[in-house]
Amino acid sequence: MLVHTALGRAEQVARHWSMAGCPVVIHVDKAVPRKTYDAFVKALSGVRNIQFSKRYRCEWGTWGIIAASQAASELMLASHPDVRHVYLASGSCLPLRPVEELIDYLATRPKTDFIESATTSDVPWTVGGLDAERFTLRFPVSWKRNRFLFDRFVDFQRRFGLKRKMPNGIVPHMGSQWWCLSRRTLSAILQDPERPTYDRFFKHVWIPDESYFQTLARQYSEHIESRSLTLSKFDFQGKPHIFYDDHLQLLRRSDCFVARKIWPHADRLYQAFLTDAAGAMKKTEPNPGKIDRIFSKAVERRTRGRSGLYMQSRFPNEDWENGVTAAPYSMFQGFAELFEDFEPWLAKATGARVHGHLFASDAVHYADKMSAMNGALSNSAILRDYNTKAFLTNLIWNTRGERQCFQFGPADNQDINWRIAKDPNAQVSVITGAWAVPLFRSNLDFAEIRATAAQLQKYEADHMDIQRSPYTKARVRIWTMAEFIEAPMEPLQGILDEIGRTKLRRLSEAPKMVDLSGFGQFLQNLKNQGMHPYLMGDFPVERGVAATPKTQRRPYLVQ
Amino acid sequence: MPYFLDYYREMGVGHFFFVDNDSTDGSLDYLAEQPDVSVWSTTASYKRARFGMDWLNWLQRKYAHGHWALTVDPDEFLVYPFCDTRPLRALTDWLDASSIKSFSAMLLDMYPKGRLDEQPYQAGDNPIEIASWFDSGNYTISRNYSFANLWIQGGPRARAFFPDQPEKAPALNKVPLVKWDKRYTYVSSTHMLLPRGLNQVYDEWGGEKASGVLLHAKFLDTFGAKAAEELTRSQHYAGSVEYKAYAEQLKDNPQLWCKWSERYINWRQLEILGLMSKGNWA
């Protein structure tokens, strides 16, 4: 048992092992003050079968831990000839199942060595960007205390190609440092005439506690079971997860012999597993998968996070968001202008929440004219424009689970254009030039119409350049107005199919298009004034007139 | 004050440090009686002590070196992941083990349903039982490049008191829990610290770091009187612009609640809503 802090807990666990008839050898880190050590030894002095081995300084990632394990193992093997398996544990390990069960389990597998041991090329266990280099470089400085110098040494050796060879051609293996080895294997490692060679080599390997026994056991073992009997979960930096009182149920169902690391103040855990071990485990069905899920979710959360969430402890740099927004949404440009009842129609056809112009200059036009939305997101244009990106990401985050659709146009706040274009969740459908329809139907002075049209056309052209840029990740569809009114059903069907939640049968009801008779002439008038509207496509003057009877005949009802 | 002390005692706070700035409500005597409280008393100007920060920084330099120090106002109640099952010591031990030196907890403004003055608050009560509502999803974040911290605004104060000047809405980002070193200093309230590395409480590559929330029980029936008093004292930040806005708004419509307000349940709710995160603490 390797111990360096929380000696009170270590004492409790050592008593527990010893009470079950297992001899215990304890190694106390040399950094523990003499006085504390003496008190600890004294506290355990009356307990049968407990010994203390020679003390080494055990700094993380260095040779000291191996030296300590060797010394303790030698003492154990020498003083207890009847010991068949040696289990390496730490002071923060807690036996979950009754010790008798572990004894029985090992008794039926007398020649098996339980040690996680995988070749370095096959596993991605790296800390500080080092895997195979743990063996080929030298590490004279502490990573914990002098990270800078450590990194410079690594750089230096890489640059000059300094490399070491594995002695005697052994193959490096790595795995959890907590093993359970049979006497045969362990003594073979410790009594090997080549041991000085190996020790000299591993003294300069980084984190040798994850590779020394793991590599050498492969030399001697007849039967390696490559897994640790100790349940130990690691976070994304390779630090062990800690167990607390609220993990009690989880640990009860883990079906493992020993767990680490336990928070020293987790009174309920120590109480439950050390005083009533038999009762602690047997009540529930084992479900070891659940622990895996909880801890791998924690790693996932720390490394990838929740897509589309921007908050105090997750604020990704642009393009590193791992999802700009939380869910797919649809933006429509020109549809509400071209169809009289587009919003209610879309809401009915898809079941989605269909907003008006969310980025309009006067206010946020939420669906049903609401003054605020989920999350108390206000409809104030000033608050929205203060941070348009946050407005969009908040809206999509707050309404997770409900598809959002909204209208957009060149008269709206254009600040948001790049963010939407670069968002793979955005489904953008544009009928270019449709902004002219409200102007065409308005009662404004022609001079005013001309000025507005020129401005809107410029904004929309700029926006379309963005939507067509190579950086765009949104699903973008763009039609000219002329193109769209030629055959509106097909694009509409395509859009609905992509939103998904439509009823399976074909679109039976199309939205009602506004009356466009005279629109061709309207555009011609703009041209005559020197303002060339081109975004709507080719609209001959006559067509506007001819289109009226044709529009009525067009089959909006498709069977 | 009694509720505040009990709340944090139960969490496992070992000792309290207070600065009493000329209080008239008997707080000084009450605090002086407590076994685990040290009080410093001053009649000097809060404003000229850089809104009290000079006082706190000095106390921390002198007494907090090497300790985990939690710096909060008396109306701020810390909520962190697993706070219903794990004491504060579990969090700070984990932060130590993970080599994390500072822990962020954004300010979450809590308010009652109905008028602010409808339900009277009595000393000793849990203020969150009255002010149990909050805004869950209208916060805006931008980076403050000079101090490397995030600047968070929004919530009920932005929408009710600053609808026309959102840039003036108060900052909600806070880093209240720090493994203190005598070389550290808070720069502006607990919003940011020096050295800058301590403000890096957020992940920039998509992941989530662990964080908590400070429930801010400011909007109780006592608020109207406090806002009026603070206006006459004129001791607050930026010419007390905040309190001027409050006084203006509260005259006609002392209500912050709206149909989309969320009712506070527990930390798990806040974590699901995305206001705080467990990070890789499991």
What does this molecule look like?
The complex is a heterodimer of chains A (559) and B (282). Chain A is of the alpha/beta class and 559 residues long. Chain A folds into two domains: 2-231, Spore Coat Polysaccharide Biosynthesis Protein SpsA, Chain A; 329-553, Rossmann fold. In chain A, helix 3 (64-79) packs across helix 7 (183-191), helix 7 (183-191) packs across helix 9 (212-220) and helix 23 runs antiparallel to helix 24 (541-553). Chain A is elongated. The termini of chain A are far apart. Chain B has 282 residues and is of the alpha+beta class. Chain B has one domain (67-272). In chain B, strand 1, helix 2 and strand 2 (37-42) form a beta-alpha-beta unit. The longest helix of chain B has 16 residues, at 237-252. Chain B starts with a helix and ends in a 10-residue tail after the last helix. At the A-B interface, helix 13, strand 15, strand 16, helix 16 and helix 17 of A face helix 4, strand 8 and helix 6 of B.
Broad shape of chain B:
globular
Q: Structural class of the helix and strand makeup of chain A?
A: alpha/beta
Biggest interface: A-B, 51 and 56 residues
Low-confidence stretches of chain A: 544-553
Bin the strand percentage of chain B. 15-25%
The secondary-structure element order of chain B is HEHEHEEHEEHEEEHEEEEHHEH
**Helical proportion of chain A, percent range:** 40-55%
- Please give the alpha-carbon distance between the first and last residues of chain B: 33 Å
The CATH architecture of the largest domain in chain A:
Alpha-Beta Complex
Q: How is the biggest beta sheet of chain A arranged?
A: 5 strands, parallel
| CATH fold node name of the largest domain in chain A | Spore Coat Polysaccharide Biosynthesis Protein SpsA, Chain A
Number of strands of chain A: 19
Q: What is the residue-averaged pLDDT of chain A?
A: 87
Structural class of chain B: alpha+beta
Number of domains of chain A: 2
Distance between the termini of chain A: 78 Å
Q: What is the spatial order of strands in the main beta sheet of chain A?
A: 14-17-13-18-19
Indicate the multimeric state: heterodimer
Instruction: State which percent range the strand residues of chain A make up.
Output: 5-15%
Instruction: Tally the beta strands of chain B.
Output: 14
